[in-house]
Amino acid sequence: MNRILLVEDNEANRDMLGRRLVRRGFDVSVAIDGASALVQARESKPDLILMDIGLGEDMDGWEATRRLKADADTSSIPVIALTAHALSTDLEKSIAAGCADFDTKPVDLPRLLAKIERCLQADANGSA
């Protein structure tokens, strides 16, 4: 069973997406901000991280991703950025921060699941 760390500060979004992923067979843990995401990623070593870009003022998702990618213990974990903004600059910033992929909210679950599977497959093949 693949483990996903869902980093989302909005409780309703976190609950809805978390439940949908669990129903699809994923083991889901959650973090509500960037700082707790860094700790949980180091401790639990998830197979993939879904990172809300619009986290609180202390640390946005891009900064959390940069820190994850700079840490040897978490640098290989693929990160998919999630955002309510579909701007090309958000995609560019996400890729520059180290995200493997990017998706918009509200989440289109089949599209997100396809991206998750691609990232997990690439990681399993050593090309993430």
TrEMBL record:
It comes from the Bacteria. Keywords: Phosphoprotein, Two-component regulatory system. The modification 4-aspartylphosphate is found at residue 52. InterPro entries: CheY-like_superfamily, Sig_transdc_resp-reg_receiver. Residues 3-120 form the Response regulatory domain. PROSITE patterns: RESPONSE_REGULATORY (PS50110). GO terms for biological process: phosphorelay signal transduction system. PANTHER family: HYBRID SIGNAL TRANSDUCTION HISTIDINE KINASE J. This is Response regulator. It comes from Roseiterribacter gracilis. The lineage of its organism: Bacteria, Pseudomonadati, Pseudomonadota, Alphaproteobacteria, Rhodospirillales.
